[in-house]
């Protein structure tokens, strides 16, 4: 049964990782690729599908968000970046919880940092997921996979991802549009949101550690 599940996963996974390797790694390059095909109203839908496919393949969400802002403007780009980040995170979460669970568990246990995140997720669920999502230096897709093999409930994961994406993903869409349009306001909004998200993550981590130390004493 496990071999069959892996075989079913192998082809789409290979396609996703090949796309992640071959696609441009700059927001402007992705924007040109997306809009150069004269896709019209299909372009946002294709971009959303790209989020769902490329996020589990470890493609940088910051690049996807920046390309969303450049391609679809501050309003459309931020909406797409938020929805895409949540959708891509959910796909990775479901993959880790179902067909790739054993493989992901082995990777998480081998990596000390991910193992600590997984342990915290097991104890604190929503708060730990949100804190890890907001903290700089924690790869989003690694968090998605670690959460998938932890006991975190799907609705708690989705809630934390939805909040976290507002402060950690949407700002890069604003930065992308700000760089493309030369708008100081968008650049300031994007930068401020990233800083606030990092501070919020730091406060949450401090509270979680304090609660853990109090419960252990």
UniProtKB/TrEMBL annotation:
Membrane-spanning segments: 6-23, 35-59, 79-100, 156-174, 186-206
Domain VTT span(s) in chain numbering: 59-177
Bilayer topology annotation: Multi-pass membrane protein
InterPro entries named among the record's database cross-references: TMEM64, VTT_dom
Keyword RNA-binding included in the entry's annotation: no
Annotated keywords: Cell membrane, Membrane, Transmembrane, Transmembrane helix
GO cellular component: plasma membrane
Subcellular location: Cell membrane
Record family assignment: Belongs to the TVP38/TMEM64 family.
Entry protein name: TVP38/TMEM64 family membrane protein
């Amino acid at each position: 049964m496990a071999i069959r599940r892996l075989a079913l996963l192998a082809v789409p996974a290979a396609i996703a990782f090949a796309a992640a390797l071959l696609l441009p790694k700059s927001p402007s390059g992705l924007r040109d690729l997306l809009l150069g095909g004269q896709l019209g109203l299909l372009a946002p839908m294709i971009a959303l599908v790209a989020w769902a496919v490329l996020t589990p393949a470890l493609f940088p969400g910051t690049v996807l968000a920046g390309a969303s802002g450049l391609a679809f403007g501050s309003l459309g780009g931020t909406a797409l970046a938020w929805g895409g980040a949540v959708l891509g995170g959910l796909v990775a979460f479901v993959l880790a919880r179902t067909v790739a669970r054993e493989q992901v568990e082995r990777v998480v246990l081998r990596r000390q940092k991910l193992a600590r995140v997984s342990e915290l997720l097991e104890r604190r669920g929503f708060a730990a997921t949100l804190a890890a999502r907001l903290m700089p230096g924690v790869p989003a897709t690694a968090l998605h996979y670690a959460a998938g093999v932890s006991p975190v409930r799907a609705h708690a994961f989705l809630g934390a991802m939805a909040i976290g994406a507002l402060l950690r993903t949407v700002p890069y869409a604003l930065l992308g549009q700000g760089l493309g349009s030369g708008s100081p306001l968008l650049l300031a909004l994007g930068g401020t949101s990233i800083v606030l998200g990092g501070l919020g993550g730091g406060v949450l981590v401090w509270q979680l550690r304090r609660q853990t130390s109090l419960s252990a004493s």
